[in-house]
Protein backbone atom coordinates (compact mmCIF):
# COMPACT_ATOMS: atom_id res chain seq x y z
CA UNK A 1 0.00 0.00 0.00
CA UNK A 2 1.42 3.41 -0.90
CA UNK A 3 2.42 5.60 2.03
CA UNK A 4 2.37 9.34 1.53
CA UNK A 5 4.72 11.25 3.83
CA UNK A 6 6.74 14.42 3.35
CA UNK A 7 9.77 12.95 5.11
CA UNK A 8 9.90 9.86 2.89
CA UNK A 9 13.08 9.17 0.97
CA UNK A 10 11.40 7.30 -1.87
CA UNK A 11 10.41 8.46 -5.35
CA UNK A 12 6.74 9.05 -6.18
CA UNK A 13 5.54 8.72 -9.78
CA UNK A 14 2.05 9.77 -10.84
CA UNK A 15 1.00 8.74 -14.33
CA UNK A 16 -2.21 9.86 -15.98
CA UNK A 17 -3.76 8.04 -18.93
CA UNK A 18 -6.48 9.52 -21.13
CA UNK A 19 -8.68 7.15 -23.12
CA UNK A 20 -12.23 6.55 -24.34
CA UNK A 21 -14.77 4.65 -22.22
CA UNK A 22 -14.58 1.90 -24.84
CA UNK A 23 -10.90 1.21 -24.16
CA UNK A 24 -10.83 1.89 -20.41
CA UNK A 25 -11.25 -1.72 -19.30
CA UNK A 26 -8.70 -2.98 -21.84
CA UNK A 27 -6.18 -0.43 -20.61
CA UNK A 28 -6.95 -1.21 -16.96
CA UNK A 29 -6.43 -4.93 -17.69
CA UNK A 30 -3.09 -4.21 -19.40
CA UNK A 31 -1.90 -2.03 -16.52
CA UNK A 32 -3.04 -4.56 -13.91
CA UNK A 33 -1.18 -7.33 -15.73
CA UNK A 34 1.94 -5.16 -16.03
CA UNK A 35 1.95 -4.52 -12.28
CA UNK A 36 1.08 -8.07 -11.25
CA UNK A 37 3.49 -9.91 -13.53
CA UNK A 38 6.37 -7.47 -14.07
CA UNK A 39 6.54 -4.01 -12.50
CA UNK A 40 5.92 -5.11 -8.90
CA UNK A 41 8.83 -7.56 -9.18
CA UNK A 42 11.38 -4.95 -10.26
CA UNK A 43 14.16 -3.79 -7.92
CA UNK A 44 13.17 -0.75 -5.90
CA UNK A 45 9.41 -1.12 -6.36
CA UNK A 46 7.49 -0.26 -3.18
CA UNK A 47 3.78 0.02 -4.00
CA UNK A 48 1.24 1.31 -6.53
CA UNK A 49 -2.43 2.04 -7.03
CA UNK A 50 -4.70 2.43 -10.07
CA UNK A 51 -7.65 4.84 -10.05
CA UNK A 52 -10.40 5.20 -12.70
CA UNK A 53 -12.67 8.23 -13.03
CA UNK A 54 -16.48 7.88 -13.20
CA UNK A 55 -16.64 8.58 -16.94
CA UNK A 56 -13.93 5.96 -17.66
CA UNK A 57 -11.94 8.49 -19.65
CA UNK A 58 -8.94 8.71 -17.30
CA UNK A 59 -6.81 6.38 -15.25
CA UNK A 60 -4.43 7.73 -12.65
CA UNK A 61 -1.56 5.57 -11.42
CA UNK A 62 0.35 6.30 -8.25
CA UNK A 63 3.58 4.35 -7.74
CA UNK A 64 6.46 4.53 -5.30
CA UNK A 65 10.05 3.50 -5.81
CA UNK A 66 13.08 3.38 -3.53
CA UNK A 67 15.02 5.58 -5.94
CA UNK A 68 14.22 7.42 -9.18
CA UNK A 69 16.93 5.32 -10.86
CA UNK A 70 14.92 2.17 -10.05
CA UNK A 71 11.87 3.54 -11.85
CA UNK A 72 13.97 4.66 -14.80
CA UNK A 73 15.69 1.26 -15.05
CA UNK A 74 12.29 -0.48 -15.12
CA UNK A 75 11.17 1.79 -17.98
CA UNK A 76 14.29 0.94 -19.99
CA UNK A 77 13.75 -2.83 -19.92
CA UNK A 78 12.74 -4.42 -23.20
CA UNK A 79 9.60 -5.88 -21.62
CA UNK A 80 8.38 -2.50 -20.35
CA UNK A 81 9.23 -0.80 -23.63
CA UNK A 82 7.03 -3.36 -25.43
CA UNK A 83 4.25 -2.97 -22.87
CA UNK A 84 4.37 0.83 -23.16
CA UNK A 85 4.00 0.60 -26.93
CA UNK A 86 0.86 -1.52 -26.45
CA UNK A 87 -0.46 0.80 -23.73
CA UNK A 88 0.12 3.79 -25.99
CA UNK A 89 -2.13 2.24 -28.65
CA UNK A 90 -5.03 2.01 -26.15
CA UNK A 91 -5.01 5.60 -24.96
CA UNK A 92 -4.92 9.14 -26.31
CA UNK A 93 -2.05 10.15 -24.02
CA UNK A 94 -0.14 8.98 -21.00
CA UNK A 95 2.43 10.85 -18.98
CA UNK A 96 4.52 9.63 -16.04
CA UNK A 97 5.77 12.47 -13.82
CA UNK A 98 8.08 12.20 -10.78
CA UNK A 99 7.00 14.12 -7.70
CA UNK A 100 8.29 14.95 -4.24
CA UNK A 101 5.68 15.07 -1.48
CA UNK A 102 5.33 18.74 -0.52
CA UNK A 103 2.78 18.34 2.29
CA UNK A 104 0.26 15.88 3.75
CA UNK A 105 -2.94 16.52 5.71
CA UNK A 106 -4.96 14.24 7.98
TrEMBL record:
The keyword Oxidoreductase applies. Keywords: Monooxygenase, Oxidoreductase. It comes from the Bacteria. PROSITE patterns: ABM. Transmembrane segments: none annotated. One of its GO terms (molecular function) is monooxygenase activity. Residues 11-101 form the ABM domain. The keyword Metal-binding does not apply. This is Antibiotic biosynthesis monooxygenase.
Amino acid sequence: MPIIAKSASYQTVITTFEMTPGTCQDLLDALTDAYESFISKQPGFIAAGLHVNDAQTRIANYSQWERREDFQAMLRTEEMRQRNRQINEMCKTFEPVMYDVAATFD
